[in-house]
Amino acid sequence: QDFDDNPGDAATETLERGTALALERNLHDILEQIEDSLGKIESRTYGVCDVCSGPISVQRLEALPYATLCVECRGRLEQ
Asked: Which of 22, 32, 74, 78 could form a disulfide with 69 if both were Cys (CB 3.0 to 4.6 A apart)?
């Protein structure tokens, strides 16, 4: 496509393309996490924190069904 007429068009298209790629990567990451969670259900380890092996709260799993860390371990990781 020729953008010589309006440089703003090129910038807009570049921004839209970058946004679409970021969304695609994010959706791919979430899909991988969901698939991992399904594997954990099969192995009976769903709802168990990957770090401390303690339970992940039902409230956390309801909010983020593919959570792999309890709130405490997630908090320590983010510090």
From this structure: 74
